[in-house]
Amino acid sequence: MKRITWRKHHKWFGLLFCFFMLMFCWSGIVLNHREAVADINVSRKWLPAGYRFEAWNGGLLRGTLRYTDKDSVAHILAYGAAGVWRTDTAASAFADFNEGLSQGADYRSMKGIVQTPDGTLYAAGQFGLYRHDGTAWIEIPLPLDEGERLSDITVRGDTLVVAGRSYLYLSTSSHAGFRKIQVKVPDGYEPKVTLFRTVWMLHSGELFGTAGKLVVDAVAVVLVLLCLTGLAYWLLPKDMRRRHRHGRHTEGEARWTRLSLLWHDKLGRTTIILTLLVAVTGWCLRPPVMIPLALTKTPALPGTSLDSPNPWHDKLRMVRYDDMCGDWLLSTSEGFYSLASPDAVPVKVEEAPPVSVMGLNVWQKDKQGNWLAGSFSGLFVWDRQQGWVTDYFTGEEAEDTAGPPFGKFAVSGYSADFKGKECVVEYYEGTDALAQPGELSTQPMSLWNFALEVHSGRVFIGSVATYVFVFLVGGGCVWCLWTGYRVRKGNK
């Protein structure tokens, strides 16, 4: 193309996508520092109506626990994205059961609650383990590595097992302390990761630890400055012409125009490799480009965060004990595994239900003793002894593969603890089997989750953004950067 065409492309693509580039930048910085902003909430009252909880959707109800308190009174605890709420078996009223937890919505996102034989309640939030002392929740220290998040909790007799994303944490009898367990290497293990995960961590900088994230943060700041200086270079000449028509001085505007172009040019040329790298890797993280990346596995890059001696680094999701088969079960990003004990070598379970790449949300026994396994790929009934898996809704045999990240029924929760009610909760539609109290509809969203909605574009155009926003807008931003480089290169 001619230089004037490159210039026009750079100008109009820049003006068109400038706002979204700014949104990408600030939200990306927030996403890179989740724990630092975990106490900051965003009111759902100020968000589009689709972000309000309705009919227990959006992960508000992940599961329930029927328990008996010290006065032998039966209660049900409902838990999920907004913490813990206590009710009765008729769901006649819901009371806040979050005393002792941080006000930050991120801290109140509960992955599971159990009651030990001595009557003590334990809850696993993504950032910590809590014990209820009868009045409030008290955090229990765990030997967590930096960045480790909890994903599940289960109990078998006096054995309490908490699952992190990379390790298991086991405690027995008095539960005074927890032993950290690195799950053993399974037979046939190959130290490979998906290319999608490598690109994802490269995009955030996490691939190179804290230093890498800070470098990407700096790139985001550079992109903000490129947007602002580009806008200034476009707007200031217009203001100069207006002032000139009214006989006013324009020396100040002229100076700022020159400075804007100077910094826009220098910043753009000196950081073009980094800015393009961040933009292109971000563009690759949504369909259709992400699909081949997710299907391709490569060895972990040496010296990076993915190059871990732990074969289960960031791969563990949920843990259960199967009384009928007499073994422990692990749900991981690599599939299901059976273990004779938490310290045993895991064995791959071949006949297993499909699970979305986002992991299980539901995993419990039904009345017949079969496993119910629910994720965004659907809800499935799993009879391990017979070796068959059927679709909960249709009764048909389940497909061998999980398919797309979202199936026809994106299951986010389940409960069979209420009288005469079996509640299957769909992420978008919720459930009509259980009335949701009105006060729960505007429970706050964490700043981190809000930044994720901005970064993905869902806050602008809804769920369809998952498939088109980043691909189109991200592609426009990449083209803007490239045309800017071509314009300046042509001047040399």
UniProtKB/TrEMBL annotation:
InterPro entries: PepSY-ass_TM. It holds the Pfam family PepSY_TM. Keywords: Membrane, Transmembrane, Transmembrane helix. It comes from the Bacteria. The chain crosses the membrane at residues 12-31, 214-236, 267-285, 459-482. This is Peptidase. It comes from Bacteroides fragilis.
